[in-house]
Amino acid sequence: MELLDKDLLSLQETRTLISKAKKAHDIYKTFSQSKVDSIVKAVAEAAEKEAVKLAKMAHEETGFGIWQDKVVKNTFASRVVYESIKDLKTVGIIKENDVDKYFEVGVSLGVIAALIPSTNPTSTTIYKTLISIKSGNSVVISAHPNAKNCIVETAKILSDAATKAGAPEGLIGVTTMPSLPATTELMKHNDTALILATGGEAMVKAAYSSGTPAIGVGPGNGPSFIDKSADVKLAVKRILDSKTFDNGVICASEQSIVVENCMKEAVKEELIKQGAYFLNEVESKKLGKFILRANGTMNPQIVGKSVKKLAEMSGLNVKEGARVLISEENTVGKNNPYSREKLTPILAFYTVDNLEAAIKLCIEILMNEGKGHTSTLHTEDKEVIKAFALRMPVSRLLINTSGTFGGLGATTNLVPALTLGCGAIGGSSTSDNIGPLNLLDIKRVAFGVKEQEEITGTTSEVNSNETSMSKDQLELIIRKVVEQLSALS
Description:
There is one protein chain. Helices cover 44% and strands 17% of the residues. The protein is of the alpha/beta class. The chain has two domains: 221 residues, 3-Layer(aba) Sandwich (Aldehyde Dehydrogenase, Chain A, domain 1), CATH 3.40.605.10; 184 residues, Aldehyde Dehydrogenase, Chain A, domain 2, CATH 3.40.309.10.
């Protein structure tokens, strides 16, 4: 018996999933807000219940990160995201403004294509599913080949919970035979309403060039500036806690530390005290060879690996208990691996002469890679905050907090999210932390509050008094009156 081509099978599976999702959406879009909310709640609770199991599966399959930290991410994606969206109106009239005389109607889009990365596979699947179904859409999850099993299992748990809560069959689908042709088909299919793209730069660009509306995010490469006014001990703690969480696989995590010369020794001392290991020149070159591949992209072998594993890989003799590897740098560029995004416990360390030089360097780092994404600042000086806020080419400037948890909206009041828009400068369609309202068309019903004549400055004959007359009529009457008066005199 002749074996069927795997790509053809994956294509057919994808088309079937889209067809089922479209039919499910046709039913789901008629559901009330309360019915939608009950389904969303059931899905969130099911995800949280299996947070540990899914975290272990993700770690075992991908080899990235720390499974205990993945439990935190899964819980964030389920419980925290749910708590932030549970009271949001997304069905029917979602906002009324009696003062300005308008109201807004939420209209679901249809089938959402959710592209899932291997770095955060289970948590991103949970998050994208929740915001999709909360906004009244169906979703087809495109599993990353290197994380297929944990993504498929996550989607099954979510789909089963949704169906038990009354959702139509096919509302949540997942590709079990991921392939490039299948992903392309999902993105370009006429029944796909929107693409939620999280992953590598090439994949995000493909989403935007597919012809289907897309929300994508580019790479992060956030510098962290520690100002003279900062609490150095606390700033270092925040940075290291952030960079070591899940071995640095979250793109909002810090990639570089920038300080003024007058702060260099104090910051270095504190970094070493809290577990950082500063590489010498020879060690930096050894490790640097493993950060990038020949084509200039990040080497997946280093992603989410521990310091111990990175040291073994590159032949370094690093002291036991080191948390982060730091290389002192003075250049920025595509060929300097330390000035690029490193989704692993590796940081660059830069020193500059003054604040202006710090701002310029942070901009240079971001424009090299990571523009539009995230940057962090540790300071108590409001003028420094304003200076950075006005000039940093980022969508999120985080003050006195962790890049990882601040960017996701866990330690800040940003929308809790695992997809972080990078704005036009970063090649994204939005600078938002993506939530359910980004997955709705919002219809605005506006009442007239002025007549056109108030805008144009003209007078309408319809609204004018019936006894009003034209200029010519008035001049004729005046002329006759003058003639009569002349005759009398």
